[in-house]
Amino acid sequence: MAISTTKDRLKELLPELFSEQEIEGDSYLRLQLNSQVFAVIDLNQVQESLVISSREITTIPNVPEYVLGLMTSRNEVFLAVDLAHLIGLSPEIVNCRQYQVIVVKPSFDNKQIKETYEQSDNPSFLGLVVDRILGVSRFVYDDFDSSNRDIPTTLEPFVYGSIQHQENQYLVLDIKSLIANRISKNN
User: Fold this and answer.
1) Are 132 and 100 in contact, with CB atoms under 8 Å apart?
2) 180 in any annotated domain
3) What digits encode the pLDDT tens for the residues 152-183?
4) Is 72 helix (H, G, I), strand (E, B) or coil?
5) Has residue 75 been placed in a domain?
6) Using alpha carbons only, what angle is made at residue 44 by residues 27 and 175, rounded to the nearest 5 degrees?
């Protein structure tokens, strides 16, 4: 009788876990902005996703309407913003008991914007509050429809294109552009 290790037994029972096949595509976080608009964010831009109580967001006066307040995560204090309202959609996240938050760390390709952002009082993280976080999916860039025919003109500067997934069309959000053009200019 041969003695096998746990790893050997797992290799026998679950060979797909140990195969070195390459998985195509990049990972994207799927989310719902409001009852009709779905979007994806490149998972490389996401630090974490959270479900937090509304009591964990501290309201602050004299800020744009899309800013819900301040929140903390990873020992950092940063803004929580209603993503749908920020990009020009009607706000649907009002007086919720819990918020679903996507925490992103802004990074910029443009050196001048990056330096301006780092020298300002902006936080190192940003909480994007959404209606629902739906999960993670892999998409191949070639599958994106880069024509903006079905994208509202107010969203065009912040959208790479769209992709059909199951029965919904998802907008591919450009978080860097959104932060650089909406948040940085309003502060």
Assistant:
1) yes
2) yes
3) 777 778 888 888 888 888 999 988 888 877 66
4) strand
5) yes
6) 105
Give the span between the Cα atoms of 26 and 179, in whole angstroms: 22
The answer to whether residues 25 and 140 touch, using CB atoms and an 8 Å cutoff, is yes
CATH code where residue 54 lies: 2.40.50.180
- 168 phi, psi to nearest 5 deg: -115, 150
Read off the pLDDT of residues 59-118 as tens digits, 9 standing for 90 and up. 999 988 889 999 998 888 888 999 988 888 887 776 778 999 999 987 655 454 445 444
Give dist(CA 177, CA 82) in Å, integer.
16
Report the alpha-carbon distance of residue 133 to residue 43 in Å, rounded: 13
Q: Residues with Cβ < 8 Å from 36, sequence gap 6 or more?
A: none
**CA gap 176, 150 in Å, rounded:** 22
Domain that holds residue 69: 47-133+174-186
Domain-embedded: residue 161:
no
Please report which helix (H) or strand (E) contains residue 17, including its range.
helix 15-18
Q: Which long-range contacts (CB under 8 A, 24 or more apart) does 40-44 make?
A: 40/137, 40/139, 40/163, 40/165, 40/170, 40/171, 40/172, 40/173, 41/102, 41/104, 41/173, 41/175, 42/175, 43/136
Residue 6 within any structural domain of the chain: no
Q: How many domains does the chain have?
A: 1
What does the alpha-carbon distance between residue 75 and residue 42 come to, in Å, rounded to a whole number? 24
